[in-house]
Write a sequence for this structure.
């Protein structure tokens, strides 16, 4: 196998992506499909699931299959894995992508329920899915892979976004611990840390921060970009490409790492 050939994931990978019916998750799902994988996604949005189903109904071969599920609901997680086993017959890759932005505000302004919701979706759900995926990943013929979506906020402090940052730091701790635990069974575990990613979600985040800081949206956006060395947002495709690389033979020696795909965000 040449180095160039090593950069492409092996065809036929069985992939589960949480939060995979829109945004980074959907871009990643389609990237895996293009690489010859079979993909199942789950998502909490009925509208996103319906839109995906309509789009996939037009697919001639290898459509993405999906389950409507709240990743923080343990019963829903069990339902997802039932569908994974019936649709894919096993698992080679888990992409723990689902997450929420959480509240924006000073620590004394953040409600306990807002904190708990952020922890439930961004951290607890990653645990729920990893613990169910590992028994399947142990049987992956070429070794299993877990990719956990953290954030650049998982390596930097993030004022007024404490719940979000706390969960994203915790994801990195979980990844590094699982990489040690699961390495002897040929399961690799890594985190991807996107930065300011183009799309509706970051627009909502910037709008919330602009309101909190009493600034126009355009000024707040400029402040975000000024903190990035490349002075531009990251694209969902760049994040998806990193996930594919980690699942390729070229990434087979990488485990226990937190890889920033952010244009070098210097500070938040």
């Amino acid at each position: 196998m040449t180095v160039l050939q090593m950069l492409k994931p092996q065809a036929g990978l069985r992939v589960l992506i949480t939060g995979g019916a829109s945004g980074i998750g959907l871009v990643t799902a389609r990237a895996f499909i293009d690489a010859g994988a079979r993909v199942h996604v789950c998502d909490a949005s009925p509208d996103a699931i319906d839109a995906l189903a309509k789009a996939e109904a037009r697919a001639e071969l290898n459509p993405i299959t999906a389950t409507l599920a709240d990743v923080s609901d343990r019963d829903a997680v069990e339902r997802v894995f039932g569908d994974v086993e019936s649709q894919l017959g096993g698992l080679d890759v888990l992409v723990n992508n689902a997450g929420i932005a959480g509240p924006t505000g000073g620590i004394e302004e953040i409600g306990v329920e807002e904190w708990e919701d952020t922890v439930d979706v961004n951290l607890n759900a990653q645990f729920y899915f990893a613990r169910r995926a590992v028994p399947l990943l142990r049987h992956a013929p070429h070794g299993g892979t877990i990719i956990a979506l953290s954030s650049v906020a998982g390596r930097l402090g993030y004022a007024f976004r404490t719940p979000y940052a706390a969960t994203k730091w915790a994801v990195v701790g979980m990844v590094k611990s699982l990489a040690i635990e699961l390495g002897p069974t040929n399961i690799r575990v890594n985190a991807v840390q996107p930065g300011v990613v183009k799309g509706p979600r970051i627009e909502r985040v910037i709008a919330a921060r602009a309101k909190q800081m009493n600034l126009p949206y355009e000024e707040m956006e400029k402040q975000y970009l000024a903190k990035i060395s490349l002075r531009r947002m990251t694209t969902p495709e760049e994040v998806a490409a990193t996930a594919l690389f980690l699942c390729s033979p070229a990434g087979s020696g990488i485990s226990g790492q937190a890889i920033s795909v952010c244009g070098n965000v210097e500070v938040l």
